[in-house]
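dumping this here before i forget
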Amino acid sequence: MRGAIIKIVVLILALLSLAIQIFAQPKLLDDFNSTGGWRSFSTEGVVVNISIVDGYKGKCIKLDYNFTKGSGYFGIQKDFPIQLPDNYQFTFHVKAESPNNNFETKFLDKSGANVWWVNRRNFEFPTEWTKLNVKKRHINFAWGPTQDQTLRSIDKIEFTVASYNGGKGTVYIDDLFFEELPVSGTVTKDIFVDVSSSLKNSAPSFLTDNKLETVWQSDKKEKQEIIFDFQGSREYGGLVIRWD
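structure:
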């Protein structure tokens, strides 16, 4: 029975993950097959070289750097005018051969004076390609003269490496995507449930009716399947199972 329970739980999580992949429609902002539009910058004492090499998919941007004085920062910036929806995320792939340093993803308005960011301090850069998510809730106001610190639109995106340990290394970035997400906590459609079997007076809908007095029960077959169809993309943080 324990084996069957584990199989059911694993199947549910796999199907939920698959549903998000199927229904999500991310927009590719940059595949980094060229440096077109990207502006590089660095402070005094930081040497940086930018090139295009083989990446996660196709080509990617490569940033070779050296903090010759141990401090400072460098980065790249590009114009991306985007009116932001109620919920969203940015994603990109990164890998590096680098000591830990601060890795910042920044969003700037048209003036460039108001900055929002995700600052990964003392970031341990992955040595293999890793997808990083920047969700709306991760982004904080960094600085600027604006009195309204709510991020509603952006004009520029910036990737910055600032010295924490300094040193020298190489950072690779690839496949920058933007994706609109459902507003957290809202469910606009019913959840459809399909099961491999049910005992009499036990309906699949009992799994999602939020009533403790109703219970779904399968027959005695060892292997069971439960399929949840959310009819769209959903962000979830866990699965709660209450056993009879």
